[in-house]
Amino acid sequence: MQVQFINSENTQIQKCIEGCRKSQKELYDFYAAKMFAVCLRYAKNDMDAEDILQDGFVKIFTNLDKYRADGSFEGWLRRIMVNTAIEHIRKNKINNQDISENIENTVKDKYANALDKLFEKELVNIASTLSDGYKAVFNMYAIEGYSHKEIAKQLGITESTSKSQFSRAKSILRNLLQVNNNQNVIAC
User: Fold this and answer.
1) Which residues lie below 8 Å from residue 148, measured CB to CB, with a gap of 6+?
2) Residues 124-164: pLDDT tens digits?
3) What span, in angstroms and rounded, lies between the C-alpha atoms of 43 and 47?
4) CB within 8 A of 171, min separation 6: which ones?
5) Please, are residues 9 and 17 in contact by the beta-carbon 8 Å criterion?
6) Would you say residue 100 lies in a domain?
7) Is 158 left (phi over 0), alpha (psi -120 to 50) or beta?
8) 35 close to 78: Cβ distance less than 8 angstroms
9) 165 and 82 in one domain?
10) Does residue 81 sit in the same domain as residue 5?
């Protein structure tokens, strides 16, 4: 259940900084599902995503006083979660070519029609079948908006490797979507 903030966001943040457990729980409850979706894209499974989520929220509450309010608070949270996920990958010494994530719908467009939503869900399901390295680069570039230079730095790969993995991921997704659409046409 998602709790609506009773106070303004800045007031809620200030209460969290002051150690108000109720405000911290409200903040967690409000953002946990969205941030879990971010973590899930980088994790091998739900348990790893939960670990990343918890580590991320520890960092958020520890560094909440550093939030400068010069951008969206949710964007700040998302950046911490992505960085925590990348740290988790590094800490567990997962081969950068074999980074696991489950692509999950993070783009919420309230104006999207039903067909668009079905396509997004289909893309998310199909993208989850990509090899782990391709998924990480695809997710960071296409969904999180990182540049190839930033991806290369974060994952410890070259910029050209990031570009080629993204290109290959798009090609694989295109082929998988085509195969999936052909199967759906036959099923009709």
Assistant:
1) 141, 159, 162, 163, 166
2) 667 777 777 787 888 888 878 889 999 888 888 899 999 99
3) 8
4) none
5) no
6) no
7) beta
8) yes
9) no
10) yes
* Token pair 């104006």 in the structure block, residue: 111
What distance in Å separates the CA atoms of residue 162 and residue 6, rounded to the nearest whole number?
A: 43
Nearest of 95, 94, 89, 77 to residue 35 by alpha carbon: 77
CATH of the domain at 80: 1.10.1740.10
Q: Mind giving me the DSSP string for 13-58?
A: HHHHHTT-HHHHHHHHHHHHHHHHHHHHHHSSSHHHHHHHHHHHHH
pLDDT digits 0-9 by tens, 8-54: 888 888 998 898 889 899 999 999 999 998 888 888 788 888 999 99
For residue 182, the domain's CATH number is 1.10.10.10
Q: Which one-letter amino acid corresponds to residue 57?
A: F
> For the range 170-175, what are the long-range contacts, defined as Cβ-Cβ under 8 Å and sequence gap of 24 or more?
170/138, 172/130, 172/134, 173/123, 173/126, 173/127, 173/130, 173/138
Query: CA 93 to CA 54: how far, in whole Å?
Result: 20
Q: Which amino acid type is present at position 169?
A: A
Answer for the pair 96, 156: CB distance below 8 angstroms, yes or no. Answer: yes
Q: Which structural domain, as residue segments, surrounds residue 83?
A: 1-93
Query: Which residue in the block uniquely carries the two structure tokens 């989520």?
Result: 53
